[in-house]
Amino acid sequence: MIYLDNAATTFPKPHEVYEEILNCMKNYGANPGRAGHKLALEAGRTIYETRENICKLFNIDNPMNIVFTNNATDSLNLAIKGLVNEGDHIVTTSMEHNSVIRPIKTLEKIGVSNTIVKCNESGELDVNDIKKAIKENTKLIVTTHASNVCGTLIDIESVGKIAREMNIVYLVDASQTAGVYNIDVKNMNIDMLALPGHKGLLGPQGTGILYVGEKINLNQLKEGGTGSKSEELTQPNIVPDKYESGTPNTPGIAGLNAGIQFILKEGIDNIRKHEEELTQYFLNELSLIPIIKVYGTKDAKKQAAVISINIGSQDSSEVSFILDSVFDIATRSGLHCGPLAHKTMNTLEQGTVRFSIGYFNTKEDIDKAVAALKSIVDEIK
Amino acid sequence: MIYLDNAATTFPKPHEVYEEILNCMKNYGANPGRAGHKLALEAGRTIYETRENICKLFNIDNPMNIVFTNNATDSLNLAIKGLVNEGDHIVTTSMEHNSVIRPIKTLEKIGVSNTIVKCNESGELDVNDIKKAIKENTKLIVTTHASNVCGTLIDIESVGKIAREMNIVYLVDASQTAGVYNIDVKNMNIDMLALPGHKGLLGPQGTGILYVGEKINLNQLKEGGTGSKSEELTQPNIVPDKYESGTPNTPGIAGLNAGIQFILKEGIDNIRKHEEELTQYFLNELSLIPIIKVYGTKDAKKQAAVISINIGSQDSSEVSFILDSVFDIATRSGLHCGPLAHKTMNTLEQGTVRFSIGYFNTKEDIDKAVAALKSIVDEIK
User: Which among A280, B135, B264, B360 is placed 20 to 30 Å from A158, CA to CA?
Assistant: First the structure.
């Protein structure tokens, strides 16, 4: 099996991730932050250490500003719904995932309006359009860092600058870039950063992160036991407890910690270099195959390692099915939970076949994917 | 280490649980319900099979009525906040965990009122008091099945009967009983059932379940990618997708499946019998030690395997600390995220030392705990 669905979940994980999950479950699988016994303390220490390692990766000062969630969707819902109130306005882009668009659309019902800035057909954002979309009541700008459909990168540093100048909160969805691209919340003026644990950060599914900047105070979306201020009937107003009710996914977070340590050891620049090289190689090869249409910028410097294509007018699901069943190559087809992005790219009807490259893919994997595509194209012609 | 903190998280897990988590991560660690390739399909199948096994345990007909969440707190928030609207009234008890009380208190701000029925000092509920608390606008009754502080069981069958007669939705928090006690949603008239995966169900942390009865339509608390109806900008109105946005905790759910299969194989009655025997033995031994005050019913037939005590007026945290550091026995002390329960039991100042027994505890573990307590009592006298 050649796995090219890393934009959904990276696979495989570094062996250290598997080992740490098992180590946690077998040796300190207790409840962190509640009891004071040895196993509970060890669980608590691991979670704190993970917060610290996340801080290293994104230039965050205070580990207590790291909130653990279930996945990036959970993080985005908390960030968006926790911040805005009736009468507020949100600016976002047409390349967002449904995890951004659907919460924003839901908020319309309680009187939160929005402007969805249109990107060009390659998914590129003109940051001036963000500036133009800002109104007096704009409370939040939210953009992805890279499209999950065609990989196109957004210049989050420039958007962050605008947000800071206009004193508007900036939320970045780094689902497709965390662990691979340099993201510096301070230099890039990012107030909130939503991250999945199970993609570029190489942790297991069931982990997500929201960085909530020091000055931001969100309404929590759920309440419950926090292990702190147990005597109070209301949610404690201390971070991260306020946003983290109930037992956390300790083994998952321990695995995520191992994933992040792997990234810190390998070096994020080396990881990106490898993915960029494979992406550019794949893009070059694809350009030589007739009938294949490649979406996005077709430039590995301008996009994450996510490549969407179609073969003529072939149904994208059928192509994905053939890649899997005949060639043992795992891709994703269809709409990728981003209908507005597909509208932007004019692929709402056909969807796309998405290849997404991870750190553990090799040039040989790409060669096999190219050969498979050539074979399918030959069959059609 | 003698682990007696199973009410927080059961530890250890059956070895099948560790193995299945690893098997999932190493062999089919892809994203379920999104792509159509082999690994994604296998992940999807495992999640569906887990829904089916949960149905077996609780006499649920439709696997699509099983919603996966992060933990029981997540489940309770969705159940409570998803159901009620301004003007509604909720009936609950004074023995609830903060994961029930805090959401209910938060709802007061949007005009949802509540009545908290007081239990007696042993944590026992007079079900007639539930009946008396019902008003014309009561939309929801929520009770725990067993107190997480002193273990006292609530007669959920009788409460369910009242709820059905009065046509009110009944939500049960089975955090302390699922996997150990027989819970039959049909015969007990339970409309919603909130469950942690990591306690009696023997799965890993990071997993929770909400059963949402066929007739119940909740407002979802978050929106995002569901892998279904990707073309729509609003959350799809199909279950369980409506309530399950974003990538699920597939390895966690796979581990939970292994835990539930273990329970089905061992037999829930055998599990309960073992825990009841150890609980009664412990209660008997405790009654022989001077100065020790045991809370709750002191009858293993009337309580789950959760035993709260204090030694004279000793600080509960100090006793727990000594148990851990001198005797290598893991317990939890303090308020256990249940301030109203402690008020009911008159332990709000002192807290309690909580011993919670799991299926893997032995008589020898209890003997060692008893010996340790005797030794601490001797030291004090």
Answer: A280
